Structures are given as structure tokens and as C-alpha cells.
Amino acid sequence: MSTLVLTKTKLxxxxxxxxxxxxxxxxxxxxxxxxxxxxxxDVTVTAVDTGHAVRVPIPQDAxxxxxxxxxxxxxxxxxxxxTCLLYTSPSPRDKRQS
Length: 98
Hints:
Blueprint: E1 5-12, E2 15-21, E3 31-35, E4 38-39, E5 44-48, E6 51-57, E7 66-74, E8 80-88, H1 92-97
Antiparallel strand pairs: 1-2, 2-6, 3-4, 3-7, 5-6, 7-8
């Protein structure tokens, strides 16, 4: 059994992108992506020369104060292979009003 490795390549215009290596080139790997225990929709996995390109659209409810985490797992084994973390902090003005 091969080991899947997911490497972030960029986050742009609300889409997290990564490169997945270690998967069988003849079959698209299946991934489960969740945010707060709910499945993230419209995740795509596409074969490329160097592995598989992964695109995860950031759900609107993940864009909020604090730390938001999306977990990326191998759907066949349940093993976590990556995360996408979003962090926002209060502005200095917000801190004075607290």
C-alpha cells in the first residue's frame, strides 16, 4: 500500500489547492474533506503529470473569526492526509471595545 502525501500549492480566490502524490495513477483517489464535521462540497481531484491536483473550495461559513480548520482525509482508509487552516484575529479597535 502506498502512502499518500498532500502538499499545499496555493490558496487563491477562495480555493485551496494541493498536489497529492503516492496514489495509483490509474485511479483517482477519493478524499473526504470536512469543516466542523460537515462535508465540504465540490472537491475535485484531477490526474496531472506529477500526481493528482486537489482543489478544495473554502465554504462561506469557514470564513469567520478565529481559527477554522478543514480536514482532508483518504476516503478509503480515513487517514488524515492534510489540513487547511484559516485564521483571523480581531482588529486592534475590536480589542479596545472588549
